Amino acid sequence: MTATVVTETPAPVMAPMHRKTKVRPYSVFRVVALTVIVLTFIAPLVWMFLASLKTNVDIYDSSKAFIFTPTLDNYDTVFGRANYLKYIFNSFWIGFASTGLSLLLGVPAAYSMSRYVMKKSAAVVLLARIIPGVSLLVPWYIIFSNLRLVGGFEVLILSHMFVSLPLVVYIMMSFFDSLPLELEEQAQVDGLTPIGAFLRISLPLAVPGIATAAILSFIFSWNNFMFALVLSGAETKTLPVAIFDFVAYASIDWGGLMAAAVVITVPIMVIALFTQKYIVSGLTAGATKG
Questions:
Q1: How many Å apart are CA 170 and CA 175, to the nearest integer?
Q2: What is the rounded distance in angstroms from the CA atom of residue 167 to the CA atom of residue 205?
Q3: Burial class of residue 153, CB neighbours in 10 A (0-12, 13-18, 19+)
Q4: Which of 51, 61, 176, 228 is the most exposed place for a label (fewest CB within 10 A)?
Q5: Closest CA to 237 of 260, 265, 211
Q6: Which among 76, 7, 29 is positioned nearest to 256, based on CA atoms?
Q7: How much is the pLDDT for 182?
Q8: Which burial class, exposed, middle or buried, applies to 73 when counting CB atoms under 10 A from its CB (0-12, 13-18, 19+)?
Q9: What is the pLDDT of residues 157-196, one digit of tens each?
Q10: Intervals of the chain under pLDDT 50
Q11: Closest-CA residue to 53 (of 32, 68, 31)
Q12: What pTM value is reported for the model?
């Protein structure tokens, strides 16, 4: 007898029915809201950049908002006649110096306050952040003028540290609170001193928080106008103060002003663009314990 092999024919596969995706009102609202927010922040920057390529006559002419003949005369005024390269150097030097000293003093202070639960000291640091800087300008000017420091880099660095140092301490306190204490205890069991455990264990783990504090401190120093306006001199003038030179008693050089504003804004935008992941990781790492 011959065996008969019966093969079953597979049932035809039904093509999936395409369902129409229903657009939710919330999705539409989110897209519209995000678009409005983005345009609100980008529109002034676009206008500033376009105005820096116009003459003062074109800036006042609304018909030439987007269609105009660009010119680089404003940038020639900024870098040629106004000598903004010196002011850029001053801003970078003051920003780096104040940020570096704030980290040098603030990181160990934050570690001590975190590990030894110095709540009163933390309250004093918080008080320094709450006090308006403008209320200290007159006493600072009197003290530093008697010490003959007004107009020098030292007084500007110290004044910027008044804000950047408490900022560093508070960011790093929350970051050190999130680090497990068992790591340092194990390191001390293995023979390290408390200072050695801080330098070799806690400090390397705190690099994201240090980067966050450094970036935010530098941005504050770069954008500071009030302290530099009162305490700087002709040779130590920073960019935010130098931009005020385009404002005269009877008129304003809008073209030069916008070109100078672009020079001030672009470095900070580049720094924020390339370091945003460090800022986010540093802030989120210190947000929770454990």
A1: 9
A2: 19
A3: middle
A4: 61
A5: 260
A6: 76
A7: 83
A8: middle
A9: 988 888 888 888 888 888 888 888 888 888 888 778 888 8
A10: 1, 3, 286, 288-290
A11: 68
A12: 0.78
